[in-house]
Amino acid sequence: MRLKAYWASQGCIVQEPFDCEVGAGTMCPETFLRVLGSEPYNVAYVQPSRRPSDGRYGENPNRLYKHMQLQVVLKPAPEDVVELYLKSLEEIGIDLSQHDCKLEEDNWESPTLGAWGVGWQVMLDGLEVTQFTYFQQCGGLDLDVVPAELTYGLERLAAFIQDVESIYDIRWNDRWTYSDVRLADEEQYSTYNFEEADVDFVWNEFRLHEAECKRLMARFAEVADPLERRRFPVLAAFDQTLKCSHLFNTLQARGAISVTERAQVIQRVRSLAVAVAKAWVAQRETTRRTA
Amino acid sequence: MSELLVEIGTEEIPARLVDGAASDLRERFAVALDRLRIGRSAQITVESTPRRLALFATGLPARQDDRRQTLRGPARRIAFDAQGNPTRAALGFARKAGVDVSELEFGADGKVFVDRTIRGRHVRELFSETLPGVVLGVRFPRSMYWTGKGGARFIRPIRWLVALLEREIVPFSIAGVAAGDTTWGHRRLGSGPIRVRGSEDYRRALRDNGVVLSGEERAGKILSEARATLPRGLRLRDNPRLLRTLVNETEHPTAVLGSFDRQYLDLPEEVLETVMLVHQKYFAVQNSDGSMENRFVAIANSAADRGGVIGRGHERVLCARFNDARFFWKFDQRRSLAERVDDLGDVTFQAALGSYRAKTDSNLEIAAGLAETLRSDSATVTAAQRASLLAKTDLTTEMVGEFPELQGKVGGLYAAAQGESPEVSEAIYDHYLPLGPAGPVPRSPAGCIASLADKLATLGGMFRVGLVPTGSKDPLALRRAAFGVARIVMEKRLEISLDRLVSLAQAGERAGRLRGFLLDRFRHWLQATGGFAPDVVQAVLAASDAQPADMRARAEALAEVRHSPDFEALAVSFKRIRNILAHAGLDIGAELTAVRSDLLEAGAEAELHGQLQPVLAAVAELNSRRDYGAALRAIARLRPSLDRYFDSVLVMADDEAVRGNRLAFLAGMLRSLSSIADFAEMAPGSGV
Questions:
Q1: Angle at A142 between CA A140 and CA A145, to 5 degrees
Q2: Strands A115-124 and A127-138
Q3: Is the N-terminal amide bond of B171 cis, ω within 30° of 0?
Q4: Contact yes or no for B280 and A76 at CB 8 A
Q5: CB–CB contact B323 A61 (8 Å)
Q6: B548-561 and B478-491 helices cross at what angle (nearest 10)?
Q7: Considering only alpha carbons, which residue of chain A is nearest residue B188?
């Protein structure tokens, strides 16, 4: 809450979480689509992120199937963005002069999104608490304006601030711990993703969403009328892409995708993401011209 | 003489690129000074931290030297009319040259010219123009833009620039940042902005603001503090690469001691070390018997850890990491390595060569061939086969997915845990060895076979599909693989011919190229690792390049005797013989006519001939036992007779028959004595 307030005071729109399964806050339209084009945009939102392969049946003190990210996008990145970020940590009670804070090289790349950037992982006493990225490309497109993306790992930060050994010991409030609230999710989803998920079913679902996305993109290409273009559901097509991405992650955790296949499936998701990104840029262009 | 200070203030530069960036900056600056003709007595030093590249140049002149320049103009008759008045051509030329028309002179070539002095420019002005190019010229493998598409590129955004010539600002700007006299200290231990007046003041200001500017000093601080934090009896496991990383990741390094639960010491040390060194960048700690202790030293970029907070934080993270490693270990045991062999069909080795399953088959076949040639005992054959079958299966494990640098080792550890024999698990563990020119080769015969088979299959396959390294490019590390083959064969003195290695590798139509490629690595081994002089290696290879281990044995023998006086003289005589033969147009490789003893002259010639036969017999016998040292000593005993021969016998005799006989004799001798080395290749009197 304090982080959101801080970023609101720095001029960010505070958004609510996006309601599709995503592996990272970056994948939400608020980041993935908004970084495209030259319009400025500053936004902050908490995003639950699901990563099937990271499930540990609730046994690892630091890794989760589903964790919360605070995602901040500053477009364009202000000159003092690193300092702004460090101040946000101080805002939530971390006295950086008493800690070991390092920015270690970590260039981020998402082959499924055709996106990459350079940046760091922010290490606080050896714990990675934030991923800091200057986006360079998204959906296969060079960005006109370079945004800074800050992704805070909220569980890790909370554990750090509360000085507890494990994420599960975080006090959610005076009465309940993180374990009380979330342990069941972690146990059950780990079991599902590693053991129970029906491979054929998940594959089918993947193919359905892929087909729907492709269908929409093919339709968009045919739409010429500005008004129709403007209200064309590019965003809905993007939802389909995100579904595919999540299902792909599930298949991978399930061990259902061989290494050779993996590259091909990534390519399939990527081509959806690239098509949506292009459509979005074209759509914004149309909207601006007709506005 | 004046002094320049340039500081490029950036956001955190990746540790692995800091050293290179600093030296590249220095290099480019030096080149610029030379180009501007102001570098004659300049001294350049650079310092770097993650957030700054600082350059100090002293001994700079105030301005460039003046230069005399001659400008040539139009012909005299065009420049001046008949009355001697300047024409428009003359006026134009004078204006362009910046002189009055009266200063124009007439050259011997009939043209107008003027000598003029070009004033040297002030260095401040020159730096204003040049520094942006120097700074932005620094090369990085993956740079970024931050001011928008098409903007300046650097490794990370440039946030401030200091450029002071003495105390004066050198004006220029990069990506909207103007150079000035203002720097910044450590992000939390310092303040800013800080105005500085010259380089001494700059160094002092940084020190006062929590920045240890000198990399050497940071390295010293890291090591001495790390050692000082350890309890008695414990030792830091030094690691120069880790140290370099930490030096380049901190502006104010401070050592913090931590410990972890002893239960994790059950995990293999390889895994513990990888987590600590590679992932967390901690120094590992060992006790007096060399085994790992449940301690570590983290290097913080901060002041001393007074409350122990930093240490606790690092401990917690390490514990979670170890916990993860244990998770992978347990998870991977669900399927044995043997059960994973067919999974390799899904792991691509190389697009044109197929999967690791296919590669495993090649490895198995080559391993069988190697074992046959090396006459391995049956236990070794079995272990080498089993190891080759399982060697790549760890690529399908979670552990290798998380710690790719442990491939091979993980396979070996899992094999041992799954009840494979020690010979097999050790061979799997070692099969990537050797990793470079130094470092161990596989310990056991089975390990050597598995490793050789793996490398030969890779080399043969890549050559077969045309992926031959050219120039300095070797993305598939084939040179390293080939050098690995050379190291194992040479260091283990394996009895296998170069041709056999090549045929096992199955390089198809490129077998010849592979042979040359491997031979180069063997030659390199003899010189670089074996330490043999180039002429010794040349002499040995000229005699024969068939058996690598034999080349080594012959080189050793030759290196030992070459400096004895007899041998040096002998080498000179052999060279003489070769010259005589070459002069006479005789090819020693060709079939020779038999020597007729009736044409031999009594005295030195007959004596040498008589002595040669027993020596040849002895040499042949010694060679068959590979006692090359004794064979060379036997040859060296020919020296007195050979000297006498050249003193008294004229090889190029007038009599054609005698001459032919002598040439045939010498050629035969040269040939039969050159089986160990071609002595004529030896440089006289040079060191080994």
A1: 135
A2: antiparallel
A3: no
A4: no
A5: yes
A6: 60
A7: A97
Element (H, E) at B145: strand B144-145
Q: How far apart are CA B663 and CA B670, in angstroms?
A: 10
- Answer whether residue A254 shows pLDDT above 90: no
Eight-state DSSP code of residue A13:
E
Q: What is the mean pLDDT of each run of 10 residues along chain B (688 residues)?
A: 94 96 96 93 96 96 89 86 87 86 84 87 94 95 91 95 95 95 93 91 96 97 96 93 96 96 92 92 94 95 88 91 89 93 85 89 97 96 97 93 91 96 97 92 97 97 91 84 96 96 95 96 95 93 93 93 84 87 78 83 88 90 91 90 89 88 89 86 59
**Based on the number of CB atoms within 10 Å of its own CB, is B176 exposed (0-12), middle (13-18) or buried (19 or more)?**
exposed
Q: Which two tokens stand for residue B7?
A: 């500081």
ipTM value: 0.88
Q: How far is A149 from chain B (nearest CA, A)?
A: 13
Partners of residue A144 in chain B, C-beta under 8 Å: 148-149
How crowded is the C-beta side of B104, counted as CA atoms within 13 Å? 29
Amino acid at A63: R
Residue B443's pLDDT is 96
Whether residue B310 contacts residue A49, with contact meaning beta carbons closer than 8 Å, is answered with no
From the list A59, A99, A136, which residue is nearest B327 (CB)? A59
Tokens standing for B406? 């442990």
Angle at B628 between CA B625 and CA B631, to 5 degrees: 95
B583 alpha carbon, distance to own chain's centre: 43
Question: Among A105, A134, A259, whose Cβ lies nearest the Cβ of B347?
Answer: A259
Q: What is the pLDDT of residue B687?
A: 39
| Residue A267 in tokens | 């390519």
Taken in order A217, A219, A222, A228, the sign of the CA dihedral is negative
- Burial pattern B402-421, b for ≥16 Cβ within 10 A else e, equals bbeebbbbbbbbbbbeeebb
Q: Which among A60, A103, A163 has the least Cβ separation from residue B12?
A: A103
Distance CA(B174)–CA(A289), nearest Å, equals: 34
| Residues of A with Cβ-Cβ distance to B148 under 8 angstroms | 76, 144-146
Q: Provide the pLDDT for residue B590.
A: 72
For position B686, what pLDDT does the model report? Answer: 44
pLDDT band for A290, please (50, 70, 90 cuts). confident
| Cβ <8 Å between B313 and A77 | no
Alpha-carbon separation of residue A42 from A3, A138, B159 (angstroms): 14, 17, 21
Q: Using an 8 Å Cβ cutoff, are B300 and B253 in contact?
A: yes
Helix (H, G, I), strand (E, B) or coil at B27: helix
What's the pLDDT at B128? Answer: 96
DSSP A106-172: --EEETTTTEEEEEEEEEETTEEEEEEEEEEEETTEE-SS--EEEEEEHHHHHHHHHT-SSGGG-BS
What's the pLDDT tens digit per position in A180-200? 999 999 999 999 998 899 989
CB contact under 8 A, A61 and B319: yes
Provide Rg for chain B, Cα atoms.
Answer: 36
Cα dihedral angle (A122, A125, A128, A129), rounded to 10 degrees? -70
- Of the candidates A126, A163, A261, the beta carbon closest to that of B317 is on A126
| Helices B356-373 and B378-390: angle between axes, nearest 10 degrees | 170
Q: What's the residue count for chain A?
A: 291
* pLDDT score for B294: 95
Chain B positions touching A61 (Cβ under 8 A) are: 316, 319-320, 323
**Inter-axis angle of helices B511-524 and B534-543, to 10 degrees?**
140
Tell me what pLDDT residue B684 has: 64
